[in-house]
Amino acid sequence: MAPTKADLEAAQNATIDDVLGPGLDVLFCGINPGLYSAATGHHFARPGNRFWPALHLSGLVPRRLAPSEQHLLPSYGLGITNIVARATARADELTPDELREGGARLERLVAEVRPRVLAIAGVSAYRVAFARPAARIGPQEETVGGAALWVLPNPSGLNAHWRLEAIAAEMARLRPPA
Fold first, then answer.
1. pTM, full prediction
2. pLDDT (tens digit, 9 = 90+) per residue, 33-76?
3. Residues paired with 2 in a beta bridge
4. Name one GO molecular function term (predicted).
């Protein structure tokens, strides 16, 4: 059942637990939870968000998972976190200080969890969080917490200039070598 307007209002500043496990190949990182995600407790849950369809099309999971199945991700070597934990209606409600603090927290988390790759979905937030104003989508030269770093397009339906197939193609580049 979809969250009500009251559920969404109550989700302001709420958090969602990270989805983590041992031996992750890829730790996906969103900017922060939207109100719909916070209300449901599931990452990338808003209808129209292309994370879950792109994840399947990328070949990283064998079928399209629903947001409520996020607990299955570690069995595929995948996890999810966010730069900033608190939910907002829009990512532009976050301050630059929050993004920088989130980047520092993310570095500590990655050093602890030790995924092979950290994949941040949202180049604009990445630029602020890590003081990389010229960063582009794709692999980055630096590492975060010892993990290789990749910046992905934001899968939000609001990011209209990235088609689903193109987001999936970027995700596919994250697959570990056979």
1. 0.96
2. 999 999 999 999 999 999 999 999 999 999 999 999 999 999 99
3. none
4. hydrolase activity, acting on glycosyl bonds
